[in-house]
């Protein structure tokens, strides 16, 4: 562990952890902006376009092909960072994880209080009846139309990942709950990985940034 980070953890008793894509690169999930990240790979459409609400509506087959192959990582396992955070929570030192990640690895490692700002690939919701399906169900391709778009086996409705796409707003409830946990009797806020901006209210106070990016950033 980074000595400075180890010292901060030892001296703190109520920590909130902010994390992004860099946390999961050790689990084999690429980030977005590093040299080998998604934004530097060649696709038929730019990832920012594919991962937009309008593209999901207009080109569902292409969207789900990208979603299945690039956004879901069925073989990924929590790495040491994920498990250490879960250990800190069990020890009573970590009060919450606020993450941009959609891979569910914090929960897989045992963390209980996780606020997923961008949603999760493990929840895929029928837009008609509200039925929820797993990432494994999406990848199984058992219920698709002729174009390869998953359809709800209950009502035949369109499925949408519970993931915040470009052109969509963050979930207000998740933001509110996350903000309460970042301002309530917190002794340290630790930001790690590819979170490049912290909200003004959140960053006002004790914030320690540790950069695990695969590329330089302004910090």
Query: Can you tell me the overall shape?
Result: globular
How would you write the strand order of the largest sheet? 3-2-1-7-8
Terminal residue distance: 20 Å
Total number of beta strands: 8
> Count of helices?
9
Strand pairing plus helix content: what structural class?
A: alpha/beta
Mean pLDDT: 84
Order of helices and strands: HEHHHHEHEEEHEHEHE
Question: What is the helix fraction of residues, given as a range?
Answer: 25-40%
Report the radius of gyration as a whole number of Å: 18 Å
Strand content: 15-25%
Characterise the protein shown here.
There is one protein chain. With 219 residues, the protein is of the alpha/beta class. It has nine helices and eight strands. It has a five-stranded parallel β-sheet, with helices on both faces. Strands 5-4-6 form a three-stranded antiparallel β-sheet. Mean pLDDT is 84; it is low at 193-207 and 209-219.
Distinctive features:
single chain, alpha/beta, 219 residues, 17% strand, 9 helices, disordered C terminus
Provide a concise account of the structure shown.
The chain is an alpha/beta fold. The chain has helices spanning 3-10, 47-50, 53-58, 60-71, 80-90, 105-109, 135-140, 172-183, 200-203; strands spanning 15-19, 94-99, 114-116, 119-126, 132-133, 159-163, 188-192, 207-210. The protein has a five-stranded parallel sheet with strand order 3-2-1-7-8, sandwiched between helices. Strands 5-4-6 form a three-stranded antiparallel sheet.
List the helices and strands and how they pair.
Layout: H1 3-10, E1 15-19, H2 47-50, H3 53-58, H4 60-71, H5 80-90, E2 94-99, H6 105-109, E3 114-116, E4 119-126, E5 132-133, H7 135-140, E6 159-163, H8 172-183, E7 188-192, H9 200-203, E8 207-210
Parallel strand pairs: 1-2, 1-7, 2-3, 7-8
Antiparallel strand pairs: 4-5, 4-6
């Amino acid at each position: 562990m980074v000595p400075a980070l180890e010292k901060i953890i030892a001296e703190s008793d109520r920590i909130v952890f902010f994390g992004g894509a860099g946390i999961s690169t050790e689990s084999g999930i690429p980030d977005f902006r590093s040299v080998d990240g998604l934004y530097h790979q060649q696709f038929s459409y730019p990832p920012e376009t594919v991962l937009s609400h309008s593209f999901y509506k207009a080109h569902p087959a292409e969207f789900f092909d990208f979603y299945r192959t690039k956004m879901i990582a069925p073989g990924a396992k929590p790495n040491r960072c994920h498990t250490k955070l879960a250990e800190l929570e069990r020890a009573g030192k970590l009060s919450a994880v606020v993450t941009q990640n959609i891979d569910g690895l914090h929960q897989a490692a045992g963390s209980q209080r996780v606020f997923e700002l961008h949603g999760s690939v493990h929840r895929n919701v029928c837009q008609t009846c509200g039925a929820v399906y797993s990432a494994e169900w999406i990848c199984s391709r058992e219920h698709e139309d002729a174009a390869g778009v998953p359809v709800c086996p209950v009502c035949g409705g369109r499925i949408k990942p519970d993931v915040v796409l470009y052109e969509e707003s963050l979930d207000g409830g998740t933001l509110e709950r996350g903000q309460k946990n970042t301002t309530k009797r917190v002794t340290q806020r630790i930001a790690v990985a590819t979170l490049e901006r912290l909200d003004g209210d959140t960053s006002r106070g004790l914030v320690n940034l540790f950069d695990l990016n695969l590329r330089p950033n302004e910090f």
